[in-house]
Amino acid sequence: MSGPAATTDVPDLGPVPTRIAVDEATVASLIAAQFPRWSGLPIRRVAAEGWDNQTFHLGEELLVRLPSAAEYALAVAKEHRWLPVLAPRLPLPIPEPLGRGEPSQGYPHPWSVYRWLPGESASREKIADPTGFATALAGFLGALRSVDPTDGPGPGRHNWYRGGTLLTFAARLEEDLVTLGDRVPRRRLRAAWRAALDATWDGVPVWFHGDVAVGNLLIRGGELAAVIDFGTCGVGDPACDLAIAWTLFAGPDRAAFRAGLAVDDGSWARGRGWALWKALAQLAGCHRDGDPEPAEARRVVEEIAADPELD
User: Fold this and answer.
1) End-to-end alpha-carbon separation of the chain, Å?
2) Where does the chain hold its CATH 3.30.200.20 domain(s)?
3) Positive or negative torsion for Cα 271, 273, 275, 281
4) 98 Cα distance to chain centroid
5) Nearest Cα to Cα of residue 241 among 193, 278, 186, 281
6) Interaxial angle between packed helices 186-198 and 265-289, expressed in degrees from 0 to 180 and rounded to the nearest 10
7) CB proximity list for 86: less than 8 A, separation 6 or greater
């Protein structure tokens, strides 16, 4: 297996998916029709859910995840196929699929029932030892990379081309820079982006998570306890998993994370590019919509612009 060159055909991202809303009544009807053994359990929406899926507690030990658009539903079959393969090879719990639902009751996509994993979303304030946390996360990702990638899913629409070339996002990133104008240090950010594109990947494809973000890292007692939401996982260039170095870590814990994965300069530049693309997309989207600027995305952009490796 060999990695794709950065000059191969660039996929078309297409329009932003059209999301649909799901309520507790729809979930109840789906469970009653397809998993009647769980039909008596109470249903309530989780306190914090992501964009790709709408998520509900099912009793105290189960979780229902329903993709919010057809594009996100492409991950359902992948998760049911591969999560049981990955789980025994990883040092921390990951989601365990217990039931695969089919479209019905007016809901148009496949969906899933998982075992509930306890914990709360990570943040610097909740982490007892940031350097230890960074080292533990590096160990988890290293173990994930070591799983046999044979027949694993390569970059595609199912994971929005994680694991592939950053050229996929180049046009949109430039649009975002134009939208933001002088609100961001464009010269420094373009230098970071150019460094990411120049650091072409020609390695052997390995497993990656695809969305290593604070909302997908669960902590208990201040320590990393589980990693969730593998909807964007796949096999390819794992540099996308390095974005967390800018979105969560800083200083010595960022260095510990890099050392724990023995990240080379090119991978580090691409990981910084992944973090930059997402942060700029968030900032520009809010400015286009007239919404308040997300402080965390602003912090990421400023830290990348200040990176001495760009000097």
Assistant:
1) 36
2) 24-116
3) negative
4) 22
5) 278
6) 140
7) 94, 144, 147, 207, 230
Handedness of CA 164, 170, 176, 180 (dihedral sign): positive
Classified by CATH at the fold level, domain 121-310 comes out as Aminoglycoside 3'-phosphotransferase; Chain: A, domain 2 (3.90.1200)
Going by C-alpha positions, the residue among 82, 92, 23, 33 that lies closest to residue 55 is: 23
Q: Going by C-beta distance under 8 Å and a sequence separation of 6 or more, which residues neighbour residue 32?
A: 39
Q: How far apart are CA 230 and CA 233, in angstroms?
A: 5
Question: Who contacts 121 (Cβ-Cβ below 8 Å, separation ≥6)?
Answer: 48, 214, 215, 216, 217, 218, 219
Distance CA 205, CA 19 (A): 32
CA 196 to chain CA centroid, Å, is 19
Report pLDDT for 181: 98
Per-residue pLDDT at 4: 37
Predicted pLDDT at 14? 79
Which CATH architecture group holds 24-116? 2-Layer Sandwich (3.30)
φ/ψ of 49, rounded to 5, equals: -125, 160
What confidence tens digit (pLDDT) does each residue in 102-116 have? 999 999 999 999 999
Q: Is the pLDDT of residue 15 over 90?
A: no
> Which H, E and C letters describe 242-264, residue by residue?
HHHHHHCCCHHHHHHHHHHHCCC
Rounded Cα gap, residues 235 and 134, in angstroms: 23
104 and 195 in contact (C-beta within 8 Å)? no
Helix, strand, coil: what percent of the chain each, to 5? 45, 15, 40
**H or E segment to which residue 113 belongs:** strand 111-115
